[in-house]
Specification:
Number of helices: 9
Number of strands: 9
Distance between the termini: 17 Å
Strand order of the largest sheet: 6-5-4-9-8-7
Largest sheet: 6 strands, antiparallel
Length: 260
């Protein structure tokens, strides 16, 4: 949520950004008053700026009066280097991985102390998956998240370790246990989860390293109903795809993955 943009001297741009930042995974549509409250703006100011954003396509106002993010923001977001570069390069490898595993495939980067999902290809099996393209989820309860967690800067790791929220009864909420898991990820080169984000869903994930050097720029994962039988096969398929993506990456293709 935005800071106190109701203070005197806040620019029109900062107030518009506050309105846009009021939307998140849990607040996809907002009526005027909740929108003003989350943006820390007066209701009349919110209405005026929101009307301008609607006119420009950045927001859409439904018949119910609620506001949602407009298509124009999505179109602009697709122009970001992390989208046009990494997603385009990874696309054929994701398709091959999906064909080989028939599982839901994820491509993700770290955005501060969360996972940002850049791409998802749905699997054939009926496995519950909560991620969507553009959504953010906790680092500690997802396969791709644990990979990115393990290779994050120390300050980010400490921030995330201080807020290990319980999502399901199987989510790891002990900092000591999570540290041991992160050590194992760095040692073994892959991460797994068992119903830690969604009941009935397990995941495996591996790091994607830049072609020039060892920097982890993204994570590649699959979601399946059970890992006990096919873990080795899935991890092998993930590593082959991740290596292919890494060899194809330009040095700057995944810069955003290291955001603090």
């Amino acid at each position: 949520m935005a800071g106190n943009t109701a203070t005197a001297g806040a620019s029109v741009v900062s107030r518009a950004l506050a309105l846009l930042s009021a939307f998140d995974e849990d607040h996809r549509s907002l009526a005027l008053t909740p929108l003003a409250r989350r943006a820390h703006l007066p209701v009349p100011t919110t209405y005026r700026i929101a009307s301008e954003l609607v006119a420009g396509g950045a927001l859409t106002r439904r018949a119910s009066g609620e506001y949602v993010v407009g298509r124009r923001l999505w179109d602009i977001g697709l122009l970001a280097p992390v989208q046009t570069g990494l997603r385009q390069i990874a696309s054929p490898f994701l398709t091959d991985l999906h064909a080989a595993t028939r599982a839901t495939v994820h491509l993700a980067i770290r955005d501060r102390a969360q996972v940002l999902y850049l791409e998802r290809i749905s699997g054939n099996a009926s496995v519950p998956v909560v991620s969507t393209v553009g959504s953010r989820l906790p680092l500690h309860s997802t396969g791709v998240g644990k990979v990115l967690f393990a290779y994050a800067p120390a300050a980010v790791q400490e921030e995330a370790l201080a807020s290990l929220s319980r999502v399901t009864p199987y989510t790891v909420t002990s900092a000591a246990r999570m540290r041991r898991q992160l050590d194992r990820v760095r040692r073994d080169g892959y991460a797994t989860t068992t119903e830690e984000m969604t009941l009935g869903a397990c995941s495996a994930a591996v790091p994607i390293r830049a072609a020039e050097g060892e920097q982890v720029v993204a994570a590649l994962g699959v979601v399946v109903a059970d890992l006990r039988r096919d873990r080795a096969r899935l991890v092998t398929a993930l590593r082959v795809a991740a290596q292919g993506i890494g060899r194809s990456l330009q040095p700057t293709a995944g810069d955003r993955s290291g955001s603090d």
